[in-house]
């Protein structure tokens, strides 16, 4: 008779590589939130709208209030949260699925951080 694995014995906690990937995603999410709250509220205090998207052909093509920038790290956090929920709910021992979900979270967080840096550069 085998016991059902608990959340603490999930594949991401048993593998050092998976723990490192979770830590890397957490670090990227933290950096994204820090970038969002570091510079952009200063624009909001001045009552300015900020460029939200820059296009190489047309320049700035989307502007709005500074708090709309928070949607970018919010999206990355949502993707990571959903992937962890899927991981805990469906694949207790499926290493390949766990790896794909965590790599997806890593890439989304990385791309969101790159987008935040480019938005920051467009606002300076």
TrEMBL record:
The keyword Transmembrane applies. It comes from Candidatus Uhrbacteria bacterium RIFCSPHIGHO2_02_FULL_53_13. The chain crosses the membrane at residues 66-88, 100-122. The lineage of its organism: Bacteria, Candidatus Uhriibacteriota. It comes from the Bacteria. The keyword Membrane applies. This is DUF1648 domain-containing protein. Keywords: Membrane, Transmembrane, Transmembrane helix.
């Amino acid at each position: 008779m085998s016991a059902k694995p608990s959340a603490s014995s999930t594949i991401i906690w048993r593998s050092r590589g998976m723990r490192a990937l979770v830590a890397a995603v957490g670090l990227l999410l933290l950096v994204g939130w820090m970038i969002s709250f570091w510079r952009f509220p200063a624009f909001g205090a001045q009552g300015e709208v900020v460029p939200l998207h820059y296009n190489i052909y047309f320049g700035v093509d989307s502007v709005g209030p500074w708090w709309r920038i928070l949607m970018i790290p919010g999206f990355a956090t949502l993707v990571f949260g959903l992937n962890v929920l899927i991981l805990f709910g469906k694949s207790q021992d499926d290493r390949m699925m766990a790896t794909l979900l965590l790599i997806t979270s890593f890439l989304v967080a990385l791309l969101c951080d790159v987008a935040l840096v480019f938005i920051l550069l467009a606002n300076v």
